[in-house]
Amino acid sequence: MVKLDKIYTRTGDKGQTRLSTGEQVDKWHPRVASYGCVDEVNAALGVAALHAEDEMLTAIRRIQNDLFDLGADLATPDRGRVLEWTPLRIVESQVKRLEEEIDAMNARIPPLDSFILPGGSPLAAQLHVARTLCRTAERKIAELSGMENEPVSPEALAFINRLSDWLFVAARAANSNGADDIKWVPGANR
Amino acid sequence: MVKLDKIYTRTGDKGQTRLSTGEQVDKWHPRVASYGCVDEVNAALGVAALHAEDEMLTAIRRIQNDLFDLGADLATPDRGRVLEWTPLRIVESQVKRLEEEIDAMNARIPPLDSFILPGGSPLAAQLHVARTLCRTAERKIAELSGMENEPVSPEALAFINRLSDWLFVAARAANSNGADDIKWVPGANR
Amino acid sequence: MVKLDKIYTRTGDKGQTRLSTGEQVDKWHPRVASYGCVDEVNAALGVAALHAEDEMLTAIRRIQNDLFDLGADLATPDRGRVLEWTPLRIVESQVKRLEEEIDAMNARIPPLDSFILPGGSPLAAQLHVARTLCRTAERKIAELSGMENEPVSPEALAFINRLSDWLFVAARAANSNGADDIKWVPGANR
Ligand code: B12
Ligand code: B12
Ligand code: B12
Ligand SMILES: C[C@H]1O[C@@H](n2cnc3c(N)ncnc32)[C@H](O)[C@@H]1O
Ligand SMILES: C[C@H]1O[C@@H](n2cnc3c(N)ncnc32)[C@H](O)[C@@H]1O
Ligand SMILES: C[C@H]1O[C@@H](n2cnc3c(N)ncnc32)[C@H](O)[C@@H]1O
Ligand SMILES: [Mg+2]
Ligand SMILES: [Mg+2]
Ligand SMILES: [Mg+2]
């Protein structure tokens, strides 16, 4: 169980830290960056939540919780060794739930023939921020998964990929189901 | 024409994706990162727009539209091959318009003999956020342009460089033309 | 003394820039990225300040000022050559002040047996955003310090490491001293 009490330990002042397994790594290792980016997405969702209520708020809090499952997954590379505990991994049902919610929200939203300018309502604007950070996190996780000897569970990658699509559709939902979205007009200002 | 309907396709779950030309690339390729960072700037502008009105709002929406032109430019490397369509590129007039607006805003703002603490009014604070993300995007685009066989149009680089200066001056404008800016006092707290 | 008047100079349109020492570097050099990331943290604090008052506001403004000291430190690598001026460096007392404030705030906050979901009050939510960006800045600064011939002062690294812990504790303080924090429940949504 994670304990947070003293908070600062000074041990990381030279730039190294530890994974959940105890392995020492540089702070700039892509694995550390990957869960650091997930933490950024999570913080952006904390801001979005300020503007959310009802089912949307419930969904955001659930996703924030899932993102810690994702962080735990990333912080615990499967090196084929037996650990003292069962590592927590993202499971398919967490990805599936995102897909079902995307389908439900999207059913009420007209399709687009251009990109939309991020923004609109305060909630939509903040969901777009979370969306772009989610895509940045995805790039880091994908990079990690492409490295040798750096296992990443396929569900972790699927989850972060689907989450950015969830955030896009949720942002449209938060703009009167897309009615208030402003479309990109290619080359309009030349 | 871009179509957005189903939104998730699951095809990117292994970490690869496509440019507008159809070329397959890793998601962590600097080119993908470069337009991903532009998307982050765009999202930050969507938040800034929540606090803007009149000409400032109009300018922000125009710049958001321009950023999709920039994204299209970056997503379509000029490989010397003929495409089926005319690629959309940032043009000099888009950079020029930023410069003219900087000059106009700056004329009303006193010069500085130190940096200013980012913040102030809600609009100014959010424009500073957009400014710093714009500079991060610039670093990625510059990195891409420094790679071999990774063409970036000079106007794209000039646009993102000028945009961060536009955002700085606009932030000062949003702080009573600089009157409310707090200056950095080097080494004040030692 | 720093002068900001014309703002745009067009000289960086090809992707190179200068450190405070006059050395020319690529814009994507980790040193430039490191102070660019510090600038991002500073902008996030500018947003947090919108929701802060009294001692919290004072502390945020002081830290913003310190972050420019940090930026100056990073922008001025100690190459063993004598400069025309005394370079500004982060000093131990700036780190110490953070530690004392963490101890004071933390004394009023119950310890945790799990992570907390970033968010809560507007101030707490924005402090979590600043916290995650601070950790991203730390990764960049640590990376720089791990490169050959790229000196980083130990106090600079200690300062950014401690700052993220300060921001965590301050965020808890801003959630009724932790009473309103929502804890992560591992694997709750599977
Ligand atoms: C990875 C990590 C992070 C990541 C990702 C976490 C995530 N899950 O998303 C991120 C970057 C978000 C993070 C952030 C922070 N972290 Co951190 N983090 C860790 C680390 C390395 C692993 C935590 C983890 O996720 N473990 C995996 C989970 C599933 O494990 P678990 O909860 O323990 O549960 C499993 C097992 O323990 C077991 N189990 C559970 N209960 C029990 C009980 C018994 C008896 C047994 C046998 C087994 C068992 O089964 C579980 C299921 O698999 C720990 C250090 C460490 N090695 O534990 C530090 C650590 C907890 N973090 C720390 C700190 C300070 C922080 C931050 C405050 C830093 C900051 N300034 O931002 C924040 C707080 C964030 C927040 N919102 O609360 C400190 C706490 C110091 C202290 N004592 O006060 C630690 C200890 C690191 C350190 N030494 O400095 N962290
Ligand atoms: C690059 C890109 C992005 C970038 C940058 C885009 C930009 N311009 O800034 C970013 C990262 C922002 C992005 C974001 C998203 N994207 Co995207 N993106 C693309 C991509 C690869 C190219 C789009 C592009 O910019 N093309 C350049 C422009 C100029 O082209 P154009 O509008 O088609 O117009 C030119 C030509 O087509 C031609 N033309 C125009 N009309 C016509 C008509 C005819 C008949 C002809 C012959 C020619 C023609 O002339 C134009 C002028 O040059 C496409 C896939 C693809 N290959 O098209 C996916 C794609 C459109 N994106 C997709 C998705 C899902 C998204 C996101 C929702 C992802 C997310 N979760 O965040 C967001 C939405 C963002 C938003 N705010 O709306 C999906 C849509 C799937 C679907 N059908 O629903 C696609 C198809 C990728 C995929 N296969 O999954 N995207
Ligand atoms: C590093 C840097 C940054 C960094 C970090 C700064 C930091 N400290 O955190 C960041 C990324 C934040 C930054 C941002 C910006 N910057 Co800048 N920055 C610089 C740079 C390279 C060094 C500044 C610095 O920190 N110096 C260290 C400090 C301590 O030095 P100092 O204040 O001069 O004081 C020392 C000495 O000068 C001496 N001293 C002080 N006074 C005197 C007087 C005399 C007579 C003497 C002999 C000595 C002396 O002692 C001091 C103590 O050590 C300068 C260019 C340069 N080479 O100066 C550009 C520069 C100041 N920046 C510039 C610009 C445009 C910006 C931005 C507006 C860019 C943008 N669009 O975002 C922002 C503004 C940010 C803000 N909030 O105000 C331009 C200004 C152009 C102009 N004339 O208008 C410059 C000149 C670069 C350029 N050529 O384009 N910047
Ligand atoms: C919508 C378009 O965005 C690009 N794309 C796919 N995943 C990411 C990501 N994580 N970050 C940035 N861009 C991405 C692809 O080019 C896709 O077609
Ligand atoms: C103001 C100062 O910021 C630095 N600089 C220039 N461009 C960038 C960027 N994209 N990101 C971060 N720093 C930058 C240079 O050192 C310049 O002098
Ligand atoms: C709390 C946990 O976060 C990780 N850690 C330490 N420093 C950073 C950073 N700058 N960015 C991301 N993660 C970090 C370590 O694994 C630590 O144990
Ligand atoms: Mg995707
Ligand atoms: Mg510039
Ligand atoms: Mg730390």
Question: What characteristics describe this protein?
Answer:
homotrimer, binds magnesium ion, Hypothetical Protein Ta1238, Chain: A, 5 helices, 190 residues, binds 5'-deoxyadenosine, binds cobalamin, 53% helix, two-stranded antiparallel ribbon, 2 strands, mainly alpha
3D architecture notes:
- Three copies of one chain form a homotrimer.
- The first copy, chain A, has 190 residues and is mainly α.
- Chain A has one domain (22-76, 88-178): Hypothetical Protein Ta1238, Chain: A (Up-down Bundle), CATH 1.20.1200.10.
- Chain A has five helices and two strands, in the order ββααααα.
- The first copy, chain A, has helices at residues 30-49, 54-74, 92-106, 122-145, 154-173, and strands at 16-18, 24-26.
- The first copy, chain A, has a two-stranded antiparallel sheet with strand order 1-2.
- The first copy, chain A, starts with 15 loop residues before the first strand and ends in a 17-residue tail after the last helix.
- The model of chain A has no long low-confidence stretch (mean pLDDT 98).
- Chains in contact: A-B, A-C, B-C.
- Bound molecules: cobalamin (3 copies), 5'-deoxyadenosine (3 copies) and magnesium ion (MG) (3 copies).
- One cobalamin sits between chains B (1-7, 9, 18-20, 35-36, 39, 68, 71-72, 75, 85-88) and A (115-116, 118, 131, 135, 164-165, 168, 186).
- Chains A, B, C: Keywords: ATP-binding, Cobalamin biosynthesis, Cytoplasm, Nucleotide-binding, Transferase.
- Chains A, B, C: Belongs to the Cob(I)alamin adenosyltransferase family.
- Chains A, B, C: InterPro entries: CblAdoTrfase-like, CblAdoTrfase-like_sf, PduO-typ.
- Chains A, B, C: One of its GO terms (molecular function) is ATP binding.
- Chains A, B, C: It comes from Hyphomonas jannaschiana VP2.
